Amino acid sequence: ATTAAFEKGETIGIVGETGAGKTTIFDAISYALYGDASGSIREAKTLASDFAAAGTVPQVELSFEHRGQSYTIRRTLAYIASGTERKATASLVLPSGTEISGPKHVKEEIISLLGLDSQQFRQVAMLAQNDFQKFLFCTSSERADILRKLFATDRFSEFQKKIAERARKAKLDV
Fold this sequence. Notes:
The chain has helices at residues 22-34, 103-114, 118-125, 131-137, 140-150, 154-173, and strands spanning 59-66, 69-76, 79-81, 84-86, 89-93, 99-101. By secondary structure, it is α+β, with helices and mostly antiparallel strands.
């Protein structure tokens, strides 16, 4: 098990030599939030350790704070125990104590909460894992969409559209 704890408001960097386990941490965070591995090459089903004892439940738990509110996510990978296939599970405990269950429902809630889907999250949160180049080379509209969501600038886009419409109407009235 890998455990990492960070203080509120801290900017972090995960650094280390090749093979030190940085991607494992990113995979755990990405899987906890979205049910996906952190990179486009790996799949979630490959995340379970080959060295875990038989019968060990492959799981991750992530507690985080967002906008001053605390959340906890628990997920298990699909696995086989005693010859029976167990499906992946997920639960998200909201600040109110309400629990959302099921991989699909938890993923939808995380996307709504963070305003980023798993691909966008990887592009902005895991730039050092060679995804920064992908961010740089994605289309202008994709990059603008990611940045708009990341910095919550949608209201400015709406304002810009209203100003442009008023200017267009003013030209027609002349």
